Amino acid sequence: MSTNRRPPTDAATSARMARQRRTGTGPELALRRELHRRGLRYFVDRAPLRGQRRRADLVFPRLRVAVYVDGCFWHRCPQHATDPKHNSQWWADKLSGNVARDRATDAALAAAGWQVVRVWEHEDAAAAADRVQAKLAERAN
Fold it and tell me: Residues of the chain with pLDDT > 70: what percent?
């Protein structure tokens, strides 16, 4: 099943998936709090490139740094990715498409002179903030 049509799902699964947040997730908020505590200011949920629908979780436009906080399930974390048992082919296609879109976004931003920092949802917020801060310092010089 390689079409984009969603397979039928039961009501409980539909309700659970509808509750998934696109922005303002716990890991994202923890990273935002840590970066703000360090005195860094940023834009939230913003497209780094004009005309691009793909939005970054945090954007530092002056230094051209975009930060994405990726969920382990949705973006296929090498440590925590799981494969759904129901509608497995549809999910495999969907999740591999997400990863391909992430790589295309990274390439488009790099071509436009941006740096991308990808943070997994399971990463410690302070360690992730260290990586973001290091990238910002690198771009400032």
Answer: 85
